[in-house]
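Q: How would the C-alpha coordinates look for this protein?
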Amino acid sequence: MPETRVVVLAGGVGGAKFTLGVREALARRGDPPATVVVNTGDDLWLSGIRLQPDVDSILYALAGVNDTERGWGRQGDSERVNRELQEWGAGWPWFTLGDLDLGTHLARTGWLRDGLTPTQVVARLSERWPLGVRLVPMTDAEVDTRVVLHDHSSLHFQEWWTRHRATLAPARFENPGIETARPAPGVLEAIAAADVVLLAPSNPVVSIGPILAVPGIREALRETSARVVGVSPVIGGRVVRGMADVCLAAIGVDTAADAVAAHYGARSAQGVLDAWLLAEEDSGLAAGVAAAGIRPVVAPLWMRDAAASAAIVDAALAAI
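A: Here is the predicted structure in C-alpha coordinate form.
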Protein backbone atom coordinates (compact mmCIF):
# COMPACT_ATOMS: atom_id res chain seq x y z
CA MET A 1 0.00 0.00 0.00
CA PRO A 2 1.44 3.42 -0.91
CA GLU A 3 2.27 5.76 1.92
CA THR A 4 -0.21 8.50 2.82
CA ARG A 5 1.25 11.95 3.39
CA VAL A 6 -0.82 13.88 5.90
CA VAL A 7 -0.94 17.55 6.86
CA VAL A 8 -2.92 18.69 9.90
CA LEU A 9 -4.14 22.20 10.71
CA ALA A 10 -4.54 22.44 14.47
CA GLY A 11 -4.58 24.57 17.57
CA GLY A 12 -5.48 24.40 21.25
CA VAL A 13 -6.26 21.44 23.47
CA GLY A 14 -8.59 19.86 20.91
CA GLY A 15 -5.85 20.09 18.32
CA ALA A 16 -3.39 18.50 20.73
CA LYS A 17 -5.66 15.53 21.42
CA PHE A 18 -6.34 15.08 17.73
CA THR A 19 -2.63 15.24 16.87
CA LEU A 20 -1.97 12.41 19.33
CA GLY A 21 -4.48 10.36 17.37
CA VAL A 22 -2.88 11.32 14.06
CA ARG A 23 0.50 10.14 15.30
CA GLU A 24 -0.88 6.81 16.51
CA ALA A 25 -2.96 6.15 13.41
CA LEU A 26 -0.16 6.92 10.95
CA ALA A 27 2.41 4.92 12.91
CA ARG A 28 0.09 1.91 12.90
CA ARG A 29 -0.38 2.25 9.14
CA GLY A 30 3.33 2.64 8.50
CA ASP A 31 2.81 6.09 6.98
CA PRO A 32 5.37 8.89 7.33
CA PRO A 33 4.99 11.38 10.20
CA ALA A 34 2.43 14.11 9.64
CA THR A 35 3.23 17.78 9.25
CA VAL A 36 1.19 19.73 11.79
CA VAL A 37 0.62 23.41 10.98
CA VAL A 38 -0.06 25.08 14.33
CA ASN A 39 -2.05 28.23 15.01
CA THR A 40 0.08 31.08 16.32
CA GLY A 41 -2.72 33.65 16.32
CA ASP A 42 -3.03 33.65 20.11
CA ASP A 43 0.69 34.20 20.75
CA LEU A 44 1.68 37.14 22.91
CA TRP A 45 4.47 38.97 24.67
CA LEU A 46 4.19 38.95 28.47
CA SER A 47 6.82 40.19 30.93
CA GLY A 48 9.29 40.39 28.08
CA ILE A 49 8.93 36.77 26.93
CA ARG A 50 7.18 35.31 23.91
CA LEU A 51 4.39 32.82 24.62
CA GLN A 52 2.97 30.40 22.03
CA PRO A 53 0.07 28.69 23.81
CA ASP A 54 -1.10 26.44 20.96
CA VAL A 55 2.41 25.41 19.97
CA ASP A 56 3.19 24.48 23.55
CA SER A 57 -0.10 22.62 24.11
CA ILE A 58 0.63 20.38 21.15
CA LEU A 59 4.36 20.10 21.94
CA TYR A 60 3.72 19.05 25.55
CA ALA A 61 0.95 16.63 24.60
CA LEU A 62 3.13 14.85 22.03
CA ALA A 63 5.99 14.73 24.54
CA GLY A 64 3.70 13.27 27.20
CA VAL A 65 4.51 16.02 29.69
CA ASN A 66 1.28 18.05 29.50
CA ASP A 67 -1.01 18.69 32.44
CA THR A 68 -4.07 16.72 31.38
CA GLU A 69 -6.20 17.92 34.32
CA ARG A 70 -5.79 21.65 33.72
CA GLY A 71 -5.57 21.20 29.95
CA TRP A 72 -2.53 23.45 29.58
CA GLY A 73 1.03 23.74 30.87
CA ARG A 74 3.42 21.10 32.19
CA GLN A 75 2.51 18.19 34.39
CA GLY A 76 3.64 18.54 38.01
CA ASP A 77 4.74 22.14 37.53
CA SER A 78 5.36 24.64 40.33
CA GLU A 79 4.63 28.37 40.31
CA ARG A 80 7.32 30.07 42.41
CA VAL A 81 8.45 32.43 39.66
CA ASN A 82 4.87 33.30 38.79
CA ARG A 83 4.16 34.29 42.41
CA GLU A 84 7.30 36.40 42.48
CA LEU A 85 6.26 38.17 39.28
CA GLN A 86 2.95 38.99 40.90
CA GLU A 87 4.72 40.41 43.94
CA TRP A 88 6.47 42.77 41.55
CA GLY A 89 3.19 43.65 39.88
CA ALA A 90 4.45 42.13 36.64
CA GLY A 91 2.59 39.91 34.21
CA TRP A 92 -1.08 39.06 34.58
CA PRO A 93 -2.20 37.73 37.99
CA TRP A 94 -4.94 35.69 36.30
CA PHE A 95 -2.58 34.14 33.72
CA THR A 96 -0.52 31.48 35.49
CA LEU A 97 2.87 30.50 34.15
CA GLY A 98 4.49 27.43 35.68
CA ASP A 99 8.23 27.30 36.32
CA LEU A 100 8.89 24.52 33.80
CA ASP A 101 6.64 26.29 31.32
CA LEU A 102 8.62 29.49 31.85
CA GLY A 103 11.75 27.56 30.96
CA THR A 104 10.24 26.87 27.53
CA HIS A 105 9.26 30.51 27.08
CA LEU A 106 12.69 31.77 28.11
CA ALA A 107 14.43 29.37 25.73
CA ARG A 108 12.11 30.47 22.92
CA THR A 109 12.62 34.15 23.64
CA GLY A 110 16.38 33.79 23.82
CA TRP A 111 16.53 32.05 20.47
CA LEU A 112 14.27 34.68 18.92
CA ARG A 113 16.52 37.41 20.30
CA ASP A 114 19.49 35.56 18.79
CA GLY A 115 17.88 35.87 15.37
CA LEU A 116 16.17 32.51 14.88
CA THR A 117 12.80 32.54 13.18
CA PRO A 118 9.71 31.07 14.89
CA THR A 119 9.94 28.12 12.49
CA GLN A 120 13.52 27.47 13.55
CA VAL A 121 12.58 27.86 17.20
CA VAL A 122 9.72 25.36 16.95
CA ALA A 123 12.08 22.92 15.22
CA ARG A 124 14.61 23.34 18.03
CA LEU A 125 11.96 22.87 20.71
CA SER A 126 10.84 19.71 18.90
CA GLU A 127 14.32 18.18 19.19
CA ARG A 128 14.02 17.58 22.93
CA TRP A 129 11.43 14.81 22.72
CA PRO A 130 10.55 12.17 20.07
CA LEU A 131 7.31 13.81 18.95
CA GLY A 132 6.53 11.59 15.98
CA VAL A 133 5.29 14.52 13.87
CA ARG A 134 6.78 17.64 12.33
CA LEU A 135 5.52 20.83 13.96
CA VAL A 136 5.56 24.11 12.02
CA PRO A 137 3.95 27.44 12.90
CA MET A 138 1.40 28.87 10.49
CA THR A 139 3.62 31.93 9.92
CA ASP A 140 6.85 33.48 11.12
CA ALA A 141 5.12 36.85 11.42
CA GLU A 142 3.87 38.09 14.79
CA VAL A 143 0.09 37.88 14.45
CA ASP A 144 -1.87 38.15 17.69
CA THR A 145 -5.65 37.89 18.13
CA ARG A 146 -7.60 40.89 19.40
CA VAL A 147 -11.19 40.69 20.59
CA VAL A 148 -13.18 43.78 19.70
CA LEU A 149 -16.17 44.42 21.96
CA HIS A 150 -19.38 46.21 21.07
CA ASP A 151 -18.17 49.43 22.71
CA HIS A 152 -15.26 49.34 20.19
CA SER A 153 -12.68 48.62 22.91
CA SER A 154 -10.41 45.64 22.39
CA LEU A 155 -8.31 43.25 24.42
CA HIS A 156 -5.93 40.42 23.71
CA PHE A 157 -7.61 37.09 23.10
CA GLN A 158 -5.85 35.52 26.10
CA GLU A 159 -7.25 38.15 28.45
CA TRP A 160 -10.74 37.70 27.01
CA TRP A 161 -10.49 33.89 27.15
CA THR A 162 -8.61 33.31 30.41
CA ARG A 163 -9.53 36.26 32.60
CA HIS A 164 -13.08 36.91 31.45
CA ARG A 165 -13.91 33.35 30.33
CA ALA A 166 -15.50 34.73 27.15
CA THR A 167 -18.24 36.45 29.16
CA LEU A 168 -17.68 39.78 27.38
CA ALA A 169 -19.75 39.69 24.19
CA PRO A 170 -17.40 40.02 21.19
CA ALA A 171 -18.32 42.07 18.15
CA ARG A 172 -15.54 40.57 16.08
CA PHE A 173 -12.04 39.08 16.16
CA GLU A 174 -9.05 40.71 14.51
CA ASN A 175 -5.53 39.52 13.70
CA PRO A 176 -3.48 42.69 13.22
CA GLY A 177 -0.77 42.21 10.62
CA ILE A 178 -2.15 39.02 9.12
CA GLU A 179 -2.77 40.69 5.77
CA THR A 180 0.99 41.00 5.22
CA ALA A 181 1.95 37.71 6.87
CA ARG A 182 3.30 34.83 4.83
CA PRO A 183 3.02 31.08 5.44
CA ALA A 184 5.97 29.71 7.37
CA PRO A 185 8.62 27.94 5.26
CA GLY A 186 7.44 24.48 4.25
CA VAL A 187 3.73 25.03 4.89
CA LEU A 188 2.64 25.51 1.28
CA GLU A 189 5.02 22.81 0.07
CA ALA A 190 3.61 20.31 2.60
CA ILE A 191 0.03 21.07 1.55
CA ALA A 192 0.90 20.73 -2.13
CA ALA A 193 2.62 17.38 -1.58
CA ALA A 194 -0.01 15.94 0.78
CA ASP A 195 -2.47 13.18 0.07
CA VAL A 196 -4.77 14.28 2.87
CA VAL A 197 -5.16 17.54 4.78
CA LEU A 198 -7.02 17.24 8.08
CA LEU A 199 -8.70 20.14 9.85
CA ALA A 200 -8.59 19.24 13.53
CA PRO A 201 -11.68 19.73 15.72
CA SER A 202 -10.16 22.95 17.02
CA ASN A 203 -11.98 26.26 17.50
CA PRO A 204 -13.05 27.22 13.94
CA VAL A 205 -12.80 30.95 14.67
CA VAL A 206 -9.66 31.53 16.74
CA SER A 207 -7.62 28.36 16.06
CA ILE A 208 -8.30 27.22 12.49
CA GLY A 209 -9.54 30.65 11.38
CA PRO A 210 -6.18 32.44 11.74
CA ILE A 211 -4.38 29.64 9.89
CA LEU A 212 -6.77 29.94 6.94
CA ALA A 213 -6.44 33.73 7.05
CA VAL A 214 -2.69 33.68 6.39
CA PRO A 215 -2.46 34.77 2.75
CA GLY A 216 -1.77 31.77 0.55
CA ILE A 217 -2.92 28.96 2.86
CA ARG A 218 -6.60 28.96 1.91
CA GLU A 219 -5.59 29.12 -1.75
CA ALA A 220 -3.18 26.22 -1.26
CA LEU A 221 -5.99 24.11 0.18
CA ARG A 222 -8.17 24.86 -2.82
CA GLU A 223 -5.43 23.99 -5.29
CA THR A 224 -3.86 20.90 -3.71
CA SER A 225 -4.57 17.48 -5.16
CA ALA A 226 -4.98 16.22 -1.58
CA ARG A 227 -8.41 15.56 -0.13
CA VAL A 228 -9.30 18.03 2.63
CA VAL A 229 -11.25 16.48 5.51
CA GLY A 230 -12.52 18.36 8.54
CA VAL A 231 -13.62 17.02 11.92
CA SER A 232 -16.52 18.71 13.68
CA PRO A 233 -15.75 20.41 17.01
CA VAL A 234 -19.49 20.38 17.77
CA ILE A 235 -21.27 17.27 19.02
CA GLY A 236 -25.00 17.26 19.60
CA GLY A 237 -25.25 21.02 19.31
CA ARG A 238 -22.59 21.66 21.94
CA VAL A 239 -18.91 22.52 21.59
CA VAL A 240 -16.66 19.79 22.88
CA ARG A 241 -14.40 22.11 24.86
CA GLY A 242 -14.01 25.76 25.75
CA MET A 243 -16.18 28.65 24.65
CA ALA A 244 -16.11 28.17 20.90
CA ASP A 245 -19.87 28.67 20.78
CA VAL A 246 -19.36 32.31 21.80
CA CYS A 247 -16.80 32.71 19.01
CA LEU A 248 -19.12 31.12 16.46
CA ALA A 249 -22.02 33.35 17.48
CA ALA A 250 -19.84 36.43 16.99
CA ILE A 251 -19.35 35.54 13.31
CA GLY A 252 -22.97 34.52 12.79
CA VAL A 253 -22.49 30.74 12.75
CA ASP A 254 -24.79 28.43 14.70
CA THR A 255 -23.30 25.95 17.15
CA ALA A 256 -24.15 22.98 14.96
CA ALA A 257 -22.00 20.51 13.04
CA ASP A 258 -23.59 21.29 9.68
CA ALA A 259 -23.29 25.05 10.25
CA VAL A 260 -19.57 24.77 10.94
CA ALA A 261 -19.12 22.66 7.81
CA ALA A 262 -20.95 25.33 5.79
CA HIS A 263 -18.73 27.97 7.39
CA TYR A 264 -15.64 26.22 6.02
CA GLY A 265 -17.42 25.58 2.73
CA ALA A 266 -16.98 23.06 -0.05
CA ARG A 267 -13.94 23.23 -2.31
CA SER A 268 -16.34 22.98 -5.22
CA ALA A 269 -17.82 26.30 -4.06
CA GLN A 270 -14.62 28.19 -3.17
CA GLY A 271 -14.46 26.71 0.32
CA VAL A 272 -11.86 24.31 1.69
CA LEU A 273 -13.60 21.00 2.46
CA ASP A 274 -14.08 17.80 0.52
CA ALA A 275 -15.46 15.77 3.44
CA TRP A 276 -16.67 16.44 6.97
CA LEU A 277 -16.82 14.10 9.95
CA LEU A 278 -19.97 14.41 12.06
CA ALA A 279 -20.62 12.70 15.36
CA GLU A 280 -23.15 9.90 15.54
CA GLU A 281 -25.31 12.25 17.59
CA ASP A 282 -25.48 14.55 14.55
CA SER A 283 -26.24 11.96 11.88
CA GLY A 284 -29.49 13.76 11.11
CA LEU A 285 -27.46 16.73 9.85
CA ALA A 286 -25.60 14.71 7.21
CA ALA A 287 -28.07 15.58 4.46
CA GLY A 288 -27.50 19.29 5.03
CA VAL A 289 -23.74 18.82 4.80
CA ALA A 290 -24.16 16.90 1.55
CA ALA A 291 -26.40 19.65 0.19
CA ALA A 292 -23.52 22.09 0.76
CA GLY A 293 -21.34 19.98 -1.57
CA ILE A 294 -19.35 18.32 1.22
CA ARG A 295 -19.25 14.57 1.73
CA PRO A 296 -20.62 13.75 5.22
CA VAL A 297 -19.03 10.94 7.21
CA VAL A 298 -20.69 9.87 10.46
CA ALA A 299 -18.36 8.47 13.13
CA PRO A 300 -17.81 8.49 16.90
CA LEU A 301 -16.01 11.78 17.66
CA TRP A 302 -15.39 11.80 21.41
CA MET A 303 -11.61 11.97 21.93
CA ARG A 304 -11.54 10.18 25.28
CA ASP A 305 -8.02 8.86 24.75
CA ALA A 306 -5.36 8.48 22.06
CA ALA A 307 -6.96 5.29 20.73
CA ALA A 308 -10.33 7.02 20.28
CA SER A 309 -8.61 9.95 18.58
CA ALA A 310 -6.75 7.52 16.31
CA ALA A 311 -10.07 5.90 15.35
CA ILE A 312 -11.35 9.34 14.30
CA VAL A 313 -8.28 9.78 12.13
CA ASP A 314 -8.86 6.35 10.60
CA ALA A 315 -12.40 7.42 9.72
CA ALA A 316 -11.10 10.65 8.20
CA LEU A 317 -8.55 8.81 6.07
CA ALA A 318 -11.20 6.31 4.98
CA ALA A 319 -13.28 9.26 3.79
CA ILE A 320 -10.90 9.83 0.88
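The chain has a mean pLDDT of 95.

The radius of gyration is 19 Å.

Upvote if useful.
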